[in-house]
Write a structure and sequence with these properties.
globular; alpha/beta; 22 helices; four-stranded mixed sheet; Glyco_trans_1
């Protein structure tokens, strides 16, 4: 398996590796090391290897050029601008000292500063130079922003030129940093000589495809599985080259896949259209683990009591939110809604294990203080992913207030399934896939995204009659399919189809029973990376 991160914070990748190994596959999971050394450990029977990824190509060629071609007034670099600003400040500080020394009483010679008359011209020159340097420094900042965003008419024309002239190969000019992934992982994959490569998300698709092609050229019939986590055209664009470059990278390499996996039927349809896939991708949901392995729960504290951590009793209305905090997650809607619901508390399970809050948390704290609701908002640390449903289960309802973004519209998030396994009534914004599911099952209320009034209406409806919404969970098949154990069966069937000779288990694995021993060759012990 391949992933473009450090593995530890990617629950889907961890679950995929562990469950594949449990099914009998020999799994090596490659990720990115944050050091210059290879790091290794195990997730169950799967081996993790983090390899260093130098990034010299992440510095775009434009950043190596001077800025003056974008603005005649700009300095050739930000470093030069900073140097000149500090140099002028030092000059003016020295002139202030000399003026003071010319008139100061006490030890020293007044002449050390020169006479006031002698400083008139230097002061004027320093002031004029300061204004000139300031003007050029502002021009430098503007030029750097333009260079970073690639949003000028010339930049856009260049992007279009490469798209038209290179087509799917345009990423080589638009985003050469993608070569850094190829160069970091290629030798490790080639040495392993896997039978199957499972590439997670779009960056690793290219790395996996190129490795598969090289191995196939040597006569090894390696299979490639692409696990598409996101809809690339709908991602946040860091600059004007980001989306077209990654779309080209994905298009060039998608054709080498033997099977495609994704997170929702909606995204599967878009992938078929966007890449002219011959088969509809398999759907493996981001569902929670309900039967954690013994090594996962070893030395882990019991699931804490949510209400105890909040310091409230069972009669106090409590809304739960679990996940990261950023401007498009909609947490501010929950906080603003508290003004109109004076008896309601909110638990934000949003503090990473490191203890360092998400950058956007500071703005949420400011909003909490501004509205005076700090006594009813409780920011709590994450718990292990298998504890989330039990941890949240004592809340009265769970909230998913996402804003409208392309990728939000296309999939059911981790938190949706975790909330459902906690059997909580849901209050969700009207992003398409989640809203349609909630309306179909009757497990909650839908509100207009970023509309505080409508959010408050939805919350009050759920709190007024929670049993009406909990009734949806009485359907045993609903929650049974929303578990990782059920999704692992799908994953094993995909591997088995591509590498015949093993049968998928008939039902999710019961961890209360001893694990089966590996069978003979052809019964599931082929190598997968």
């Amino acid at each position: 398996m391949l992933v473009d991160n450090g593995v530890r914070n990617d629950s889907r990748v961890q679950k995929s590796a562990r469950s594949a190994a449990e099914a009998g596959w020999d799994v090596i999971l490659f990720g990115i090391s944050n050091t210059r050394e290879i790091q290794s450990w195990n997730i169950g029977e799967a081996e993790v290897r983090l390899v260093p990824k130098p990034s010299p190509l992440s510095h775009r060629r434009q950043e190596m050029k001077g800025l003056r071609y974008r603005s005649p007034l700009a300095y050739r670099s930000s470093d030069v601008a900073s140097f000149r600003k500090q140099q002028v400040k030092a000059w003016r500080a020295d002139l202030r000292f000399r003026a003071a020394a010319a008139t100061a009483d006490g030890p020293g010679k007044p002449s050390a500063g020169g006479s006031p008359a002698r400083l008139v011209l230097p002061k004027a020159a320093a002031k004029a130079t300061s204004k000139w340097v300031g003007l050029r420094s502002r021009a430098t900042r503007r030029a750097k922003r333009k260079r970073t965003k690639f949003d000028t008419p010339l930049d856009k024309a260049i992007i279009k030129f490469w798209q038209v002239s290179k087509g799917e190969r345009a990423w080589r000019k638009l985003l050469p940093y993608l070569w850094d992934y190829e160069l970091a992982f290629a030798k490790h994959i080639d040495e392993l000589e896997p039978d199957l490569i499972h590439a997670h998300d779009f960056r690793m698709l290219g790395v996996g495809a190129r490795a598969a092609v090289r191995l196939r050229a040597t006569g090894r019939p390696v299979k490639l599985v692409w696990d598409a986590h996101e809809f690339v055209p709908g991602l946040h664009s860091h600059h004007e080259r980001w989306i077209p470059g990654h779309v080209a990278w994905e298009k060039e390499h998608a054709v080498f896949s033997d099977a495609v996996i994704t997170v929702s039927p909606s995204l599967a349809e878009l992938l078929v259209k966007g890449h002219k896939l011959k088969e509809t991708p398999y759907v493996v949901l981001n569902a929670p683990v309900m039967q954690p392995a013994p090594d996962e729960v070893a030395d882990v504290d019991p699931t804490p009591d949510l209400r105890e951590l909040c310091g409230i009793d069972e009669d106090t209305p409590l809304l739960a939110y679990c996940g990261g905090i950023n401007p498009v997650r909609g947490v501010e809607t929950m906080i603003e809604g508290l003004v109109k619901m004076p008896d309601v508390h909110v638990a934000l399970v949003s503090l990473p294990p490191s203890g360092k809050p998400f950058p956007a948390t500071a703005k949420i704290i400011e909003l909490i203080e501004e509205l005076g609701v700090g006594d009813r908002v409780h920011v709590l640390p994450f718990v292990p992913h298998w504890q989330v449903p039990e941890f949240l289960s004592t809340a009265d309802a769970a909230v998913s207030p996402l804003h409208h973004l392309a990728n939000h519209e296309l999939a059911l998030s981790n938190k949706f399934f975790e909330y459902s396994q906690a059997r909580l009534p849901l209050v969700v914004s009207d992003i398409r896939t989640m809203a349609e599911m909630v309306e179909r099952t009757g497990q909650g209320e839908v509100f207009k995204a970023q509309d505080v009034e409508d959010y408050v209406r939805a919350v009050k409806a759920v709190l007024a009659n929670p049993d009406r919404y909990r009734k949806a969970y009485e359907d045993p098949e609903l929650l049974a399919q929303w578990t990782w154990e059920a999704q692992a069966v799908v994953l094993d069937k995909i591997y088995s189809r591509l590498l015949p000779g093993t049968e998928a288990p008939a039902a999710p694995k019961d961890r209360s029973r001893p694990a089966p021993t590996a069978g003979p060759e052809g019964s599931g012990n082929e190598s997968t990376v």
